[in-house]
Amino acid sequence: MKFYRLFILTVLFLASFNLFAQPIQWTVVAPGVWKGTVGKPEAYNLLTASGSKPNTPGLEKLSAGSFPFLETDIAGSARDGKTFLRFPLDEEEQLYGFGLNFQTVHQRGKILELHVDHYNGKDNGRTHAPTPFYISSNGYGVFINSARYLKIYAGTAARKNSKMRRRKKTETPINHGPLVLTRTLLKS
Q1: How sure is the predictor about 121, in pLDDT bands with cuts at 50, 70 and 90?
Q2: CA-closest candidate to residue 172, choices 73, 47, 84
Q3: CB-based contacts of 183: which residues, under 8 Å, 6+ apart?
């Protein structure tokens, strides 16, 4: 009987992400640039803090390209003060970015805490220049427009319902509050 209860609780827990997942409505910001929002956007974020505006005339000279994923393969939810995002990854896809990292360029398979901090010899995302932006070896980039501390699970696990044998999808929890997400296609 204990095993049966534990099994049911485990199944309910694992299914909870899909139950709370919200469809992300993607809008075109510029050719090759899409914006999706999960939760309620905060007034203070990286784009408002920087005061910068995109070079819209330059972007309009680029080809539009196509959205790099099936929209149904991307999941997002906001619960308990955290925002969760999950993007599909190909089996051999690599991720680059997330700010200044001294020991490695490849970020796939790492858990990164994007906090401003002294480097102190550890390459765990806590640097003096964390950046919530990554570029994929498949030719797209993702920017998470949040000024909060972030915890990124960059392709650290494989889902059982994955179409690939390993690492097809990864879940990326964001520690606090909602966010605005921009996916940029870098090649057409």
Answers
A1: low
A2: 84
A3: 26, 33, 34, 35, 36, 67, 68, 140, 141, 142, 143
Q: Which helix (H) or strand (E) holds 7?
A: helix 2-20
Place 150 in a pLDDT band, splitting at 50, 70 and 90: confident
Q: Which CATH superfamily is domain 22-185 in?
A: glycosyl hydrolase (family 31) (2.60.40.1760)
Q: In terms of pLDDT, which residue wins out, 107 or 164?
A: 107
Closest CA to 149 of 171, 130, 169, 168: 130
How many whole angstroms separate alpha carbon 178 and alpha carbon 125? 21
What tokens does 174 get?
Answer: 């964001």
Alpha-carbon torsion angle 117, 118, 124, 130, nearest 10: 50
For residue 38, list its beta bridge partners: 179
Quick one: CA torsion of 79, 83, 84, 85, rounded to 10 degrees?
140
User: Does residue 23 sit in helix, strand or coil?
Assistant: coil
Domain ranges of the chain: 22-185
Relative to beta strand 110-116, strand 126-127 is: parallel
For tokens 């921009």, name the residue. 182
Closest by CA position to 75, among listed 111, 38, 28: 38
